[in-house]
Amino acid sequence: MKKALLTLTFCYACMLMIAASAHARAADIFTNSQYTDSCHLTINSHVTMDAENIQVTNTDGERLLLKADNQLLVNDQLITISPRQQPLVDAYRQQLRTTIPAVVDIALEAVEIGITAVSESFSTLVGTAPPPALRLALADFRAAIDARLAHQGQVVMLKGDSADLSGAALDQISSDLQAAMASAVASSIGTLIMDLGQTIEAGEGSLDERLQRFTKRFEHLGEALETRIKSRTGALQGRASNLCGQMAELQTAEQNLQAQVPGLKAFSLVHAKTQSTSI
């Protein structure tokens, strides 16, 4: 019995580690990943666009509206653009329509991978659907993201620093989600005990051989789950790395236009990230 309890403890610890890894892997794409380390750019303003217009709202609440015919309005006031400046406006508009949807799509896919990974981790390892508390935490997480990121048809919305899914609010949501996952795993310990009991009673070989098979089965489940998550995040990592180049091109188009129309400097979208230092 002592051997059985040790096996149970080992499997429970594995569940917690795999659950934490599943949730953290998608978040790493935009926080601790190579993308973040290599790309020093981020988008801080609120951007919305549809088939006709693009609107940029800065942190002071001022609005820049860019229309399909390259008309520019700041707080509903038309800005006069010369023929020489029109190509710069067009280049900026085109770059916005290329880069902002790409930022949003990659971020939303990373979130979807994270949510799916958490749900699959629980279902695969425990054998049941996630409990209500975990489903609620996942729903809250998705709702918080949906308030900052959206892409439906030709309508795109990126709010604040959503490009890297960082910030205190999302950090807290992420922490709450990990806590909910750990709690759900802990509450499933009864299911794992029943599984272990059935393993002890059934099957061929000695008790030690049955326990070893149970442990290996558990390890294989975790490894298979990790492999699936890695394959998803690996493909997304490549897209995120390419995105840094697109953001640099957007910054160039933005700076070229602002050099000719200084009044637009208040609406700078692309900024260098603040580098944190550790002691």
Detailed description of the structure:
The chain has one domain. The protein has 7 helices and 9 strands, in the order ααββββββααββαααβ. Strand 4 and strand 5 (72-74) form a beta hairpin. It has helices at residues 2-28, 34-38, 86-126, 132-146, 168-187, 189-201, 207-260, and strands at 41-43, 46-49, 54-57, 63-66, 72-74, 77-79, 149-152, 155-158, 270-272. The chain is 63% helix and 11% strand. With 279 residues, it is of the alpha+beta class. It starts with a helix and ends in a 7-residue tail after the last strand. The chain has a 7-stranded antiparallel sheet with strand order 6-5-4-3-2-8-7, with helices on one face. A two-stranded antiparallel ribbon has the order 1-9.
Give the topology, please.
Layout: H1 2-28, H2 34-38, E1 41-43, E2 46-49, E3 54-57, E4 63-66, E5 72-74, E6 77-79, H3 86-126, H4 132-146, E7 149-152, E8 155-158, H5 168-187, H6 189-201, H7 207-260, E9 270-272
Helix pairs in contact: 1-3, 1-5, 1-6, 1-7, 3-4, 3-7, 4-5
In brief:
This protein is an alpha+beta fold and 279 residues long.
Shape: elongated
Sketch the topology as an H/E string, one letter per element.
HHEEEEEEHHEEHHHE
How many distinct domains? 1
From the helix content, strand content and strand pairing, which structural class follows? alpha+beta
> Major sheet: size, sense and barrel closure?
7 strands, antiparallel
Poorly predicted ranges: 25-37, 162-169
Give the rounded overall mean pLDDT: 75
Question: In percent, how helical is the residue content?
Answer: 55-70%
